């Protein structure tokens, strides 16, 4: 009997070549090209549909404000899940952050409110760590329990502290569903640059005016908390991917047993990750309260769950989370600010993107996956045709569909990104010291 050996292909230096998986790594130049191409499409859509509000600086400023709490929640989820703990409780931690910010903010100002939000969310993260790391509770069950517990707790405390008969909070404007108002958070503007970009934006030039609108939103009346959020994203990248602390923390999410064998205290790192996770989510909740100057019941509005979606869409990387938060923030701002006519213009843009997706699906992929790619391309083309018909036969989009846009976007983006995802290997698994020895 003879055997036939399979010879692996050699690389240019004689080493074994990496198998062709059909996937290409998204480098920074490629990402910049994608962003530039998206802006060209937005500019074309604005010109064709006449929907100038689609790319003005006010729209992007609103999108930036909407993206910050979502991005902070997603970044918090990233810290937790890189350490191997699923954090479904982001929504509850954001609730704790909004309430703590409202409670402290009306008495001591917005910066104290931000700090209180961080502490409130961190307490939620510690509770999740106690349940999952110390007692081994299922991560999903613990996260859901925290969401339910936080909702009940903030409602009870709001009635007790803000709505008490004859209380100081009630005299200052509070009630059982909201806190008294707090002062404004300071903003910064670059005067000369802001005015110059506004002048370019008003001309309505193709691409140039749209780019000016985006840039002006970054230098005109920007909250200091937004700048802090950008610093936290950059800092998280360097801490998690460029430091020994981050390497140890990520090893707890990939192989805690191997990390333990190298002397890493896995429990300590999981606790640290969940504390930071809760603090970031709490800061996102505080941003919501500070932005409207009060805490309100149900203020988070599911942004913790959308933040979790941005983390998955971003493939557990800070840059991907930031891009996902920007996308969802833009759609949320459209829902709140623009309304039916502008969302109607987006139907045409989404149809073009779906046609591009169908072409990409037909051109790429391994031979074994081509049948599935053809099915996906066909579905994309059918939906694109339906969207074009919808656009051609109507003048606006009903308010109910406008309200759905952030959540529909969440589902679409996750379904399209699902094939490129690579979660930490030990995510969601209960760890016990010494179990692998």
TrEMBL record:
It is found in: Cell membrane. Keywords: Cell membrane, Membrane, Transmembrane, Transmembrane helix. Residues 1-21 are annotated as: Disordered. The chain crosses the membrane at residues 26-48, 60-79, 85-104, 111-133, 139-158, 222-241, 271-292, 304-330, 342-360, 372-392. It is a multi-pass membrane protein. Pfam families: BPD_transp_2 (PF02653). InterPro entries: ABC_transp_permease. This is ABC transporter permease. It comes from Streptomyces albiaxialis. The lineage of its organism: Bacteria, Bacillati, Actinomycetota, Actinomycetes, Kitasatosporales.
